[in-house]
Amino acid sequence: MKPLHDKPERPDPARRSLDRLFELAEVLGTMMQRGMAEKGLTTARARVLWALFHEGPVTQRALATQLGVTPRNVTGLLDALQEDGLVCRKAHPTDRRATLVSLTDKGRSATAALRVGRDELAALLFADVPPDRLDTFTATLGLVTERLRAVGADSPE
Amino acid sequence: MKPLHDKPERPDPARRSLDRLFELAEVLGTMMQRGMAEKGLTTARARVLWALFHEGPVTQRALATQLGVTPRNVTGLLDALQEDGLVCRKAHPTDRRATLVSLTDKGRSATAALRVGRDELAALLFADVPPDRLDTFTATLGLVTERLRAVGADSPE
DNA sequence: TATTGTTATACTCTATAACTATA
DNA sequence: TATAGTTATAGAGTATAACAATA
Description:
- 2 copies of one chain form a homodimer.
- By secondary structure, the first copy, chain A, is mostly helical.
- The first copy, chain A, has one domain (about 35-150): Orthogonal Bundle (Arc Repressor Mutant, subunit A).
- Chain A is about 70% helix and about 10% strand.
- The first copy, chain A, has a 3-stranded antiparallel sheet.
- In chain A, helix 3 (about 60-65) crosses helix 4 (about 70-85).
- The radius of gyration of chain A is 21 Å and the shape is globular.
- The two termini of chain A are about 35 Å apart.
- Chains A and B meet through helix 1, helix 5 and helix 6 of A and helix 1, helix 5 and helix 6 of B.
- Chain A binds a DNA duplex through helix 2 and helix 4.
């Protein structure tokens, strides 16, 4: 497309940006996985804790919908978390088929610790970035996420 | 910390940015997973193809090191890719213990298609972003990735 | 003795399908 | 009849450990 003598290594800016984004996502994922493994957690289980932390007691069905996984999957994740004493199941007050899941004190502490760890990481990562540049960065992240969701919604499953 | 009457919902800018980054990483991961599933691939297998596309024929050992997984894991991934006719194993010319892995023509086409798909996505996502803002975004991604790697290197496994 | 790739085994996440108890 | 959660089964990714062939 472009003359070869003009910086042949320079790829398209959009491609470059998305490639960097993938790279960051991968490094970030690996790092978080390692950090959670030290706390005896996995990504999937942490997602459950996170959901319960923000949504309060919910049925397993609701949890499955929110996490985008099957009810069967939720059963397994909760079994593991319950064995570790992080969540507890209670009978639903009116619907005897359903189960209400909530965090135990231990589960709440563990989730709060995740939050703290994430904040510390954020402080480290963005220490050097000037406030206005950080704002632009955050806004662009939001814009791209929105756009990505729109693209995904186009191909309906 | 701050007076409550001052936008109580406004979190720390760094936290907000990292949270958005996690959100984007999750959406992006889900989307790519879905896209690759349509092509009969998984994330792990695509990573193998990607590595072979860029590194040329390598031993399984080198592949394991580069991907950050165990040699056993590589064996399984290659078995699957070979069954689909995407990679081939050849005897190493000088070391009779080792195996050289490379992409087949079909594998090369499939990987090139991934590249094209990614470029199309990039064009869609960043269509609205002005060039200078995109540059800043990309640079910040790079900076954060670097910083993240430095943090990870601190805790040496 | 060290290294390459494999077999053996196990754990986690994920899915579908069939089943039970309730609604 | 439909829904909530479970059992049963399966497949993918990952890991460790033991082993064979080769260096």
